[in-house]
Amino acid sequence: MKDIKVLGTGCANCRNTVRLIEEVAAEQGVAITLSKVEELPEIMKYGVMSTPGVVVDGKVVHAGGIPDRAKITSWF
Amino acid sequence: MPLLRRPATTPVWLLLIAASAALWLTLYLNLSPLADHLTGFLGLDRSTRFGEALHFFFYDTPKVLLLLTGIVFVMGVVQTFFAPERTRALLSGRRQGVGNVLAALLGIVTPFCSCSAVPLFIGFLSAGVPLGVTFSFLISAPMVNEVALALLFGLFGWQVAALYLGLGLLIAIVAGLVIGQLKMERHLEDWVQQIQRGEATWSGDPAGGWPARFAAGWRHVREIVAKVWPYILAGIALGAGIHGYVPEDFMASFMGKDAWWAVPAAVLLGVPMYANAAGIIPVVEALIGKGAALGTVLAFMMSVIALSAPEMIILRKALKPTLIATFAGVVATGILLVGYVFNLVL
Fold first, then answer.
1. Interface ipTM > 0.95
2. DSSP element (H, E) containing A33
3. CA B240 to chain CA mean position, Å
4. Which residues in chain A are contacts of B84 at CB distance < 8 A?
5. Residues of A in contact with B318 (CB under 8 A)
6. CB A25 within 8 A of CB A74
7. Which of A73, B115, B127, B188 is surrounded by the fewest CB atoms within 10 Å?
8. Predicted confidence (pLDDT) per residue in B87-140, tens digit
């Protein structure tokens, strides 16, 4: 079970990132728990400067813009 | 590129870019005959109002879209060299002065989205970038952007684009210096002042070589053009209407040089508007053609782009009202001065 968090204040790119991760996880048949972190103090704890950011099992793997499918697949 | 299954190598990219550049140039050099042709094809000519408006539309739309695509691609590639993390490292520990100039310049080439304004702001401060220097970046990044520059270049020529670039940088540098001098650190929200960076610090994606940079440029084009083209079309269509139907010198009475109150009115009007540059500039071009003064119109544009109410609301999460008001006040003053100076000089 992968624990995935999407960091972002709720802009369009953040929502699209969440949707894309769900899609890819479903395609790959990977079980994930996906949550959104929208509170700025929380987001800042990860040291991310551009949103959306993605955290997999506590580690930042992406920041800024929507990640592409290949990149998402590589996290699973 | 969507056509390619496998990631393209550098030579493939260079070939694609060369072919696209040749096509781009051919189209760009033939814009006027193309517009004549299209207008003629519809059985109209430029002596009628509708024909003139339509010709304007057929000429300006491809021109602006071509310039936009070209400039956005180049910027997309350039931006891969300036991730926010890199910019932060370059600015960290800089003093006032040099730091402000560097921050304003980096604001042009660092990818920026207003939804990331706060994380970026705090990320800079926590890495030891002074408050005034951070503000120089935060003012320059949205105001001096490639979409505004591409449109100004396309519709007014390179001189106006260069002026906008220079004045935008000047406002960012001076406003940052002023805010730095005011020593307003205590007007940051308490949680920002206490911020501790966590364990998991992101240091940016590793660069993937030239193919990845070109791919990023192409992605940038698709993102930006997909977002702004409806605004550009609507803006140019409205502009074409004004061009064909509004009488000459109509705007001169209330947006001309002689109306002293026009500049402040333009700045105030710009604040609640959160248009991207794309929709505003074609309208502005048409207004200028009818006698509006360039300084007034540039002040309006800068105000729309740099002082948007939604961005203030986002920043409010990190800044106390006094600091927001100072920021808005200093930037608005800068824009006013630019507007007046332009109207005086030109």
1. no
2. strand A32-37
3. 22
4. 49-50, 64
5. 40
6. no
7. A73
8. 888 888 788 889 999 999 999 888 877 777 888 888 888 888 889 999 999 999
Q: Which two tokens stand for residue B330?
A: 């200093």
**Quick one: average pLDDT of B56-62?**
86
Residue of B150, B190, B199 lying closest to B318 (CA atoms): B190
Residue ranges of the domains in chain A?
Answer: 2-71
Band of pLDDT at residue B36, cut at 50, 70 and 90: confident
Q: d(Cα B143, Cα B146) in Å, to the nearest integer?
A: 9
Residue type, B223: E
User: Taking an 8 Å Cβ-Cβ cutoff, which residues of chain A contact chain B?
Assistant: 8-9, 11, 13-14, 40-41, 43-51, 53, 55, 58-60, 62-65
Q: Is the pLDDT of residue B76 over 50?
A: yes
CB B297 within 8 A of CB B257: no
Closest partner residue to A51 (CB to CB) among B119, B197, B318 is B119
In DSSP terms, A5 is beta-bridged to A35, A55
B146 closest CA partner among B90, B60, B82, B207: B82
Would you call B238 exposed, middle or buried from its count of C-beta atoms within 10 A (0-12, 13-18, 19+)? middle
Instruction: Provide the CATH number for the domain formed by A2-71 in this structure.
Output: 3.40.30.10
Structure tokens given for B173: 């540098």
Does A62 sit within 8 Å of B205, measured CB to CB? yes
DSSP state of B8: P
- Looking up tokens 């026009």 gives B262
**What angle do helix axes B10-29 and B31-41 make, rounded to 10 degrees?**
60
Please check whether residue A47 is in contact with residue B201, taking contact to mean a CB–CB distance below 8 angstroms.
yes
| Least CB–CB distance from A40: residue in B85, B118, B205 | B118
Per CB-CB distance under 8 Å, the chain B contacts of A63 are 202, 204-205
d(CA B209, nearest CA chain A) in Å: 16
A57: amino acid identity, one letter: D
